[in-house]
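Reviewers of the previous submission asked for a worked example of the structure-prediction workflow described in the proposal, so we include one complete record here. The input consisted solely of the amino acid sequence. No template or homolog information was supplied to the procedure at any stage.
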Amino acid sequence: MSEAVHKQLIDNISIILKKSLAADATLTTLREAKQAGFAAIFTPDAGFKCSANTFQPYVEEVANDLVYWQKTSDQQALIDIVKKIEQLFMVLAKLEQS
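From that input alone, the workflow returned the following structure tokens.
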């Protein structure tokens, strides 16, 4: 397992965690104003096992995937983690812009 890859994954997950806390607060406000009535942030084909209308379960899933990758060094797990991180960054950026 490359230490540089490991550090970059941890850094990215930390950034996503911080952004997701703010995003979840925004989503709560939007829901209270009846402006966010969706059931899940990602569609079932996005590659996530969980389905939620907040970001925290998705962040938790990525963190759990990272722990699995650290134990196994499974190449496919690493690819899946990177894809999930990329999707989270894209959706969080869109939410920040709106």
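The chain has a mean pLDDT of 93. We consider this example representative of the routine output the project will generate in years two and three.
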